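Researcher: Going back to the complex we discussed earlier. I've cleaned up the inputs and rechecked each line, so this should be the final set. Can you rerun the prediction on the complete assembly and write out the structure?
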Amino acid sequence: MRDDSMQAARFGAFDPVLAAILANRLDAIVREMSNTLLRAARSAVINSGRDFSCAICTADNRLLATAEGLPVHIFGSHLQTKAMCELHPDLAEGDCFLHNDVYLGNTHLADHMFLAPVFVDGEHLFTACTKAHQADIGNSIPTTYHPGARDVYEEGSLVFPCVRVQRDYRTIEDIVRMCRARIRVPEQWHGDFLAGIGSVRIGERRLRELAAKHGVATLKSFVEAWFDYSEARMVQAIRKLPKARLVNTGRHDPLPPILPDGIPLKVEIAIDPEAAAIELDLRDNIDCVDCGLNESEACTINNVLTGVFNCLDPDVPHNAGSFRRLKLRLRENAVVGIPRFPHSCSVATTNVGDRLVNATQAAFAQLGEGWGLAEGGSSMGVGYAVVSGRDRRQGGRLFINQLVVSSNGGPAGPVADGWVTYGLPVVAGAMYRDSIELDEIKHPILFREFRLLPGSGGAGRWRGAPAAHYVYGPLHDPMTVVILGDGMVNPPKGVLGGEDGARAVFYRLASDGTRTALGNGTRLELRPGEWVGGSDNGGGGYGNPLSRPPERVLHDVNERWETANRASAVYGVVLRRASDGAYALDLAATERARRAAEPR
Amino acid sequence: MGFRITVDTGGTFTDVVAADANGRMTLAKSLTTPERIFHGMGEALTLAARQLSLTLPELLAATDLFIYGTTRATNAIVTGKVGRTALLLTAGFPDILVLKEGGKFHAHDFSQDFPEPYIRRSDTFEIVERIDAEGTVRVPLDEGQALDVLEAVARRGFEAVAVCFLWATANPAHEARLGALIEQRLPGVSYTLSHRLLPVVREYRRASAAAIDASLKPLMQAHLREMAEDLQSQGYSGELLVATGLGGCQHVPELIERPIHAVGSGPAMAPVAGAAYAAAEDRGEDVIVCDTGGTTFDVSLVRAGTPNHTRETWLGGQWTGHLVAMSSVDVRSVGAGGGSIAWVDPGGLLRVGPQSAGARPGPACYALGGTEPTVTDAALVLKYLDPEFFLGGRMRLDRAAARRAVEQVARPLGRGVEAAAFAILTLASELMIKAIQEITVAQGFDPREAVLVAGGGAAGLNIVPIARELGCARVILPRTAAALSACGMQFSHIVAEETASLVTLSDRFDFSGVNAALDRIEATLQGFLGRLGRATPTHRLELFAEARYQAQVWELDVPLPGRRFRDAGDVAALHQAFDRVHERTFAMVDPGSRLECINWKGRLTASLPTAPWLTLPLAASPTPGPVARRPAYFGADAPVSSEVHRGDGLAPGASLRGPAIIEEATTTIVLPPGARATLSASGNYVIEVGA
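Model: Rerun complete. Updated structure for the full complex:
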C-alpha cells in the first residue's frame, strides 16, 4: 500500500475503524430523514418525483453528510445554516426554521428548506437540513417556475428569509396561516410542511442518540478526521488529472420576447495536479438578466461542483473536506455567480443550472478520451410542465402540480452509454418519475402517448440515451399548461467526435388534428379534445461513432434504440436482415465501410 | 400423523428437515443439482432416512406432508433463463418496463450502462386500445390489429405472453378479451393478464409482475410436475405443497397457475421460523430475523407475530433490477457475509464488501485459491473458528493463509493482525446493523423492543455485538440455525392473497363498490379454501386496505376494523386505524386529511396440522464442561482464554458465560465476555447479550 505516512496524517489520532462506523451512521441518519419525507409528503413533485434532499451540516456551517441527495440541492446547504446562525443569536433547542431566500443562500424560492439546530447538552453541534421543491409557493402565475419575472416582486412568491416556524418544538401558527392564505392548494402545502418538519426532527433525534452514545468530544474529532479523509481522497482524485486550463461555453435557448438570444455561459477551469486543486472561474459571464433565469449563489455552487464531481471517482465523499480542494471565482451581479437584488432566480435550479452542469462536465472531455462526459438532455419540456385547473371529479377543486414524466437522455461517458431515465443534468437520474396511472388519478388528465424515440441519442463510441415523446391533454375541463423549455435550439452537445443529442420539440394538437409548433416558455389553455405533445432531448454522444463496437450497434438496432439507417449512415455498420426480422452483422462489410468513412 | 418433510433447495445446498410425529427433527444437507433437482434432494433425503434407520421409500411412505421450497424461480429471473415471453401493452406506451419507476443510486456515477428491461423491446408489442382512470373506453380494442400481433407472436415462437393494459384494473374488458383471443389463436401458450394476477394501480408494477409470471410459467410448470412425478415414483403418496414468497405454501396446481409466488420463497421462510422460535421461547411477538450466508445477509421483521409484507421486492437491485410487485414477506438483503472481502481504500479507510469471494474461490482459509481477506478469515484469525472443526470437521481451514490475507489490511492500517481482524468483523457487523436499522428504525420500529433470532451458518460469529449495538437484550440462536428456511417451512401454513383495485376517498366513500370488492375477495378466497380438499381446516381471513392520505403516493397496509362498511362510523374507524399506522411508521399524523384507499386485499391462512415443538435430538449423556480452551480475541490487545463447548454434548438448561465458543456441526456461536447463553428445552440457545 502506498503513502502510509500520509494516512497517519489524515486520520491523526482518530481510530479509522470508528471513523468508518460513524460515517456509516451519519449516512443512515440522512437516509432515514429522506425516507420520512418521501413517504409522508403530499405533492407529487416530492413524493413521486423525489424532488428533495436531506443533509447534515456542522454547527460552524460545513457540509458534513448528504447521502443520496439531488446534486442541485445540496452542496450549498452550509450557506443556509450560516444565515440561520447569523440571523438568530437566540438559537435554541426546539427551533425549526423555514428558509427559501435566494439572497441568503437558498437555491430558488420554490425549494423550502427546513433547518433544525441540533443541541447536545446545551451546545449547538449540528444542523439537520431538509429541502423540498414545493408544488406551489404563491407565485403571481400558477407555476413554481416563473421565467418571465422581471424581479422578485413580479415573481410574487412568499419569501422566508430563514424564519422560525417552531419554538420549543411547537409550531408558530402565524406562519402556517400566512402560507395557507397565499399558497394554492394549501392542504397539499401543509402536508409537505409537516413532512419536512418530521424529517429534520428525525435527524435531530438520531444525531442526539449518536452523541449520547459516542460522546460529544469523539464526534467533534471524528468530524475533523472525516473532513481530512475526504480531502485526502479529493487530493488523490485531482492528482490523477493532467495539468490543464479548460475553457468551455454553453448557451441557454432564446426565450422570446425576454431573451431573444438566450443566455451564453462560460466556464474556465484550471486543474493543478501538483497543488491538487481545481479552480473554477465563472466571472466572465454576462450580468444578471431581468427575468427568472438567473442562477442563485447556491445553484451556481451546486451545479458547477456537480459538473466536477461527475468527472471524478464517485467514491470521493462530497462534503466540506473535499470542497477544500475546489476554488470558486464568482462575480456579483453575474447571471451565473452571485445575483444582485431584486433579480429573480425563479428557475435557478434547472435551465441555466442544467447548462452549467453540462458546460462543466463537457469541459473535462477536452482532456481527451477517458475524461469528462458529453452533455445530458436538459429540456424542461412537455414532460416537466406545470399543469393546473379545476378537477370536477373532486367537486371542482383547484389542482396544481409539476409533472415529473420526462426522461431526457443521459450523456455518454468514457465507459458507458447514457442513462435512460436521466431526468435533467441537475438531478442525474436520482429523481423518481411519475407513474402514468397515478398522474391520471392525481390530475384530470389523459395521456395518449409516452415512448422512447429510436435514433434520438447522440451517436458516439458511447451513445447518448434517447429522447422520449409525450402527448397528453385535459380529461373533462380546460387545463393550463406552463412549459419552460430549453433544448430546442441548442441540443446537448456530443464530445470528442460524438454527435449531439436530439433537439426538443413542443406542439399543440387541435381537436381536428392540426399540429401547431410551440416555442420555449409557453403557457397554454387546453380544452378537452386538445392535446399538448413533444419530445425532450437525447443525450450527447462520446467519441467517434465509427469506433463503437459493431455488436453494440447491432444490439441497438435490434432493440430499437437506434435505426438501421443510422447504423449504416452514422456508425458505418452494415447489417443484414435475417428471415425472422432481426438484423445480423456483416463484419467484413462493416470494416470496409468504416475504413472508407475515416477521414484521411 | 407421520413425518413432515421440508426441503429448501438453494443455489448451492439443499437442506432437508424431516420431523416425526413427536417433533423430533432430522437434518440433512446435499449439493443442489440444478439439472434434475430430485437427484441432490434424493441424496439429502436418503441421508435423513439413514439417520432414522429407514430407506428412502420407507421414509416417504411414512410421510404425509411434503413442503418443497426452491430458488428455481428466483434464479431463473436473475439469470434471464426464463421462457421466451412476448409483452403486450397499450398502444402508445411501449416502454413501461424500460422506464420502471424511477430512481438511481449514485447520481455522480456515470460508469454503468442502463439495465436492459425484463422483456426486450423487440419482444414488446402495442395493442390499439385505451381505457381511462374511470374505466371508460377511450379507444376501443382493435381486434383485427390484436390478431395480427398474435399471429406475429405465434410466428416468432414465443412460449408465453404477458398482457398489461392501462387501467385494466378499472375495466378489465380489453385484457379479458385478449386472454380469450390468446386461447383461441395460441393454444398451449402460457399467458398472464395483469388484472387477474395483480389488480393494483401503477402500470409498471402490473406489467413487471405479469411479465415475470408469464415468463416463469413454461419452466415452473415443467419443474413442479417433474418434482411431483419424481416423488411419486419413490413411493410418496401424501400431500405436496410448495413454499411461496408470502411465507406460506400452496398446492402445485396453484403455483403452476401463478408461479411468480415461488419467487423469494426461501428467504420468506426465515421470518416464519423466527416467529416460531420466539414463540417457543416465550420471547414476545416482535422479532428481528437475520440470516447470514456466505455472500448475503437477509433481514426481516415480525410484528405482533406476523412477518412484514411489501410490494417492493426487487430482484437484481433496487431500481436497476426487476420489481416482483406481488405482496410478499419483506426481506432485505445486503451484500455482507462470511465471504465479504475487506480492503483499505486510497484514503486509508477500512472497507468491507460489496465484493465477495463467494463459495469459489472462497475465503483465503479455504485454500481454494482465494488470497483476499474475508470475514471468515478474520474469524479464524480471532480464533473464533477451529480450523479442524469447521462444518463439523468436514472442511479443514488454513489459519496461516487467513493470517497472510488479513495482514494485507493490517499493514496499511498500522495495526496488528488480530486488531485488523477484529476491525473487519466490526465493520461487517456495521453493515448488518445498518440493514437491520433500515427495516426497523426507518419504519418506525424500535429494535430494543424486539428479540433477535439469528440463523445461517455464519450468524453466531458476530450476532452478540450486533444485538448490543441495536439495544436488543436477547438473541435466540436455534441449534438448527444453518437450515433456517427449511425449518420455517415446518411451521408454515397455506397462505393465499387476493387483491382488488378500487380508488375511493373517505369523504365520498363508495360503500357499495368497496363492499362488492370485499365480497369478491372473500368469495375467491373461500373458493380457494374449498379446493384445499381438507375437512373444514382451521383458517383465518384478514382484510386490508392499501391507503394513503390524499395526494400521497405511497400506500400503507391497514387491517380493516370490520368485515364490511355500513356507515360513516365504519369509515371513520378505518381513518383512525390508518392514522395509527401512519404515526407508527412516519412519526407524524394528519387526521384532518382525507383518506384515499387505492387497493383492497384479503389474506387467507389455512392452518396445517400443528406438530408439537420441534427439536434436534439432545445429548443422551451430556458431557459437562468445555472440551477445550482457546485464546480468542475480543477487541483488547491480548487474547482471552475462552471455553470451547460442543453443542451436541450440552444438556437442556446448560448455561454458559462468555468468553466462550459453542461449536455445532453447522454453525459456531461466539460469546464475548459479558454474554451468557442457555440451552433451552426446545433446543435453542437463548443469549443474554449483556454489555
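Model: Worth noting: The two ends of chain A are 46 Å apart (CA to CA).
Researcher: Good, that matches what I expected from the previous run.
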